[in-house]
Amino acid sequence: MKRPRFLPDNMTLLLLAVVLTASFLPCSGQAAVGFNHLTSAMIALLFFMHGAKLSRAAVLAGATHWRLHLTVLLFTFAVFPLLGLLLKPVLLWLVSPELYLGILFLCVLPSTVQSSIAFTSVARGNVPAAVCSASASNLIGIFLTPLLVSLLLASSVASHSSFDAILKIVTQLLLPFVAGQIARPWIAAWIGRHREVLKMVDQSSILLVVYVAFSEAVVQGLWHQVPATMLLSLLAISAVMLAIIMSLTMFASRRFGFSKEDEITVVFCGSKKSLASGVPMAKVLFASHAVGMVLLPLMLFHQLQLMVCAVMAQRYAARENKMH
């Protein structure tokens, strides 16, 4: 039976199911402590497997295109945060201060890896450069995101100093990633044959962290603080921010004289924000009772960017087909 076109992807449906489960059956007490330990282990495993999966040859192949990579990094870590700050008066009129902090956190996160590369490939863009840009964004984000959080967000919200946060993120994310790179010669072939295992670890780690975070938020009264009208406002804000960033990346690519393939890479790598990196980072950077509220804007933006980029990738690909 063919899947209905209006039905969201499986990950979106699972996220909705997890949020509903946390809303009606939140974990607390010792169960929450156990889930926290489990999520930390799952996240470490996830980054280990990503390290083992990432080909150094593919990264080196695209690493020489420094103007493209610099453009992506500037949009990810400078233009996006600046947009969040410039829109502050309007955003605070539409959403609560706590949700605005979540929007700012979204703005300082690195780009996605898998989906940026996948959409660039579908759209017939510069895939080696996309691999390099998206990977560099995530590795730089391990250090830069905590610094930007400490710079832009109120110190009372973050639960650690920026140095402590970087140290924790390095321990939980970077070290497993490096260990995966070291182990790559021995396990890369196995991972290549079992891509579904990586996908399962990826999704289950995110779902676990979201469940624990939303459980804590529900216990603290999340849904009393976020009415339906505010959720709609968040969705509208996400759409506007995504439209602005995608338009700016497209304009900048053409202004800088990039080829169509490079433009595609800049648009898809420079406009995205990573749920896979954002969820564990929020867990480290924020007090446990604030994580659910902080993640809500990211979850909405993440799903919207996937749907919009899927349409954009098909349009780019159709345009390329007409030219050949």
What is the overall pLDDT average? 82
Strand portion: under 5%
Shape: globular
Number of helices in the DSSP assignment: 15
Radius of gyration: 19 Å
Describe the structure.
- This protein is mainly α.
- It has one domain (11-18, 27-319): Na+/H+ antiporter like fold (Up-down Bundle), CATH 1.20.1530.
- 81% of the residues lie in helices and 0% in strands.
- The protein has helices at residues 10-24, 30-53, 56-62, 66-86, 88-94, 97-107, 114-122, 127-152, 162-193, 195-219, 222-225, 228-255, 260-270, 275-285, 291-323.
- Helix 4 (66-86) packs antiparallel against helix 12 (228-255), helix 8 (127-152) packs antiparallel against helix 9 (162-193) and helix 10 (195-219) packs antiparallel against helix 15.
- It is globular and about 50 Å long.
Summarize the helices and strands and which ones pair or pack.
Layout: H1 10-24, H2 30-53, H3 56-62, H4 66-86, H5 88-94, H6 97-107, H7 114-122, H8 127-152, H9 162-193, H10 195-219, H11 222-225, H12 228-255, H13 260-270, H14 275-285, H15 291-323
Helix pairs in contact: 1-10, 2-9, 2-10, 3-8, 4-8, 4-12, 4-13, 6-15, 7-8, 7-13, 7-15, 8-9, 8-13, 9-14, 10-14, 10-15, 12-13, 12-15, 14-15
Give a quick set of tags describing it.
324 residues, mainly alpha, Na+/H+ antiporter like fold, globular
